[in-house]
Specification:
This protein is mainly alpha-helical. It has helices spanning 6-39, 46-83, 95-108, 141-146, 149-164, 167-195, 201-244, 247-259, 269-272, 301-308, and strands spanning 86-88, 114-118, 125-128, 136-140.
């Protein structure tokens, strides 16, 4: 891979993340228009009819999405806190971690986040929090014990970059949009299952169209969400390199993390994607691009290491 410079890489990733975020509402409204287009009773005036009813439904769809977003926003915040098994780490228990975090925060002029520990001997870490009072860096017991100071500092700098870039907030936004289509798909499937097939021809066509479009929306929004997650990992790697001036330390840490990143307490993929390496992965992923990569929450760890070694 040709190295293009860290600042250019960060700009590219930011641009791609914003573009992908814009695509979420575009998909929602685009699928609403298609639904109206396909189920309308007047086939001779499809476009005019779809445009007319689409404009009438836009305010209602916007209100529904906003309400869903507000409810899901707060529920996901609580879910992240409870699904990882992390607990506060006191200064007396580990002065080493506090010194590393404080030195990095002072060097980049950011407030000190809370520090949590996950009682698991695997190697992993994640950042969380929606605002300054809730910003937290969580480290597993394994990553604390098995990395040297330079490697651990690089991992902490990676997580601090996530906090500075408000990545948790961005990822929750993407998770919320995916949840809308997941809910609609499941609701339609349940409706069909419990209706006993007692629908007329017209109702059956409406259900089929709604199910196909909801499934398409779920697929597209999931791909967008995974792409955003991968871009933010590249940015956090670059932020760690800038903060520590030691990209090889993070490369070394990632090599060790790749051997055993699996945190047993984490069962949900939307939480797992917050970690420096997805703890649900059971094997190292190929560095070369393949079709399956679009469904990955993280870039191949070998690719991340390769970029870091080019500094």
């Amino acid at each position: 891979m040709k190295y293009i410079g860290l600042n250019r890489q960060i700009w590219n990733n930011n641009f791609k993340s914003v573009l992908l975020l814009i695509l979420f509402p575009a998909v929602i409204f685009g699928l609403v228009w298609l639904f109206i287009f396909f189920v309308q009773p007047e086939p001779g005036y499809r476009v005019d009819y779809a445009n007319q009813w689409f404009l009438r439904t836009v305010p209602w769809v916007s209100i529904a999405v906003l309400l869903w977003f507000i409810i899901a926003w707060f529920s996901h915040t609580k879910m992240i806190e409870s699904a990882t098994g992390s607990v506060p780490l006191s200064r007396k228990e580990n002065m080493r971690i506090y010194n590393l975090v404080e030195n990095l925060c002072i060097s980049c002029g950011m407030p000190m986040p809370k520090i949590n520990i996950i009682e698991d001997e695997s190697l992993n870490a994640f950042a969380s929090g929606m605002s300054k009072p809730t910003f937290t860096v969580s480290l597993s017991r394994g990553i604390i014990n098995k990395l040297d100071d330079a490697e651990l500092e690089a991992v902490i700098a990676h997580e601090l970059t996530h906090i500075r870039n408000r990545d948790v907030r961005l990822l929750i936004v993407s998770i919320v949009f995916v949840g809308i289509f997941a809910f609609l798909t499941e609701a339609i499937v349940r409706s069909v299952r419990f209706s006993g097939g007692g629908r007329g021809k017209k109702d059956g066509r409406v259900v089929i169209v709604a199910l196909l479009l909801a499934a398409l929306g779920y697929l597209l929004s999931s791909i967008f969400r995974f792409a955003i997650s991968r871009q933010r990992e590249y940015m956090a790697d670059g932020g760690s390199a800038l903060m520590t001036k030691n990209p090889l330390a993070l490369a070394s840490a990632l090599e060790k993390i790749s051997i055993d990143p699996r945190i047993e307490a984490v069962k949900r993929n939307d939480v797992a994607q917050l970690f420096i390496e997805n703890p649900q992965d059971k094997k190292i992923r190929p560095a070369s691009f393949s079709f399956s990569m679009i469904f990955m929450t993280h870039p191949p760890i070998e690719k991340r290491i390769e970029i870091l070694k080019q500094f």
